[in-house]
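To: structure desk
From: M.T.
Subject: fold request, one chain
Message: Could you run this one when you get a chance? Sequence is below, nothing fancy, just the single chain.
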Amino acid sequence: MAGTHHKTGYVVITIQKKPYRAHRLAWFYVYGEWPTEDIDHINRIRSDNRLCNLRLANKSQNQHNTGLGRNNSSGFKGVYFSTREGKFLAQIMVSRKRVSLGYHRTAIEAHQAYKNAAAIYHGEFSSEK
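Reply: Done. Structure tokens follow.
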């Protein structure tokens, strides 16, 4: 494969001394137009540039399809332990606002609340299927 793997995980191809992300070049090559939005890697593997793994997404949709944050200690996206309440809090981002999904006795219950909300609010861009 042409190009180099960048530290961000993306494959970068340099053309006339200008770096381009390979997934954007692939989109241009197949569809004949430069993508005006983000291109989301459906399986979240940034080097997997197969066309079946790429879709147009706005910034918000692209952010929904992410994995766990580095500082996540619950093991579940959108789930945090509240030491004040002694329970797990489920939260989800909707239109750039944090929405509380309530406190739950277990991380698994909180995760289920997050999954249900993600299906409603994030649809096909939810990382929790």
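Reply (cont.): Strands lie at 4-5, 11-15, 18-21, 38-41, 54-57, 79-82, 87-94, 97-104. Let me know if you need anything else for the meeting.
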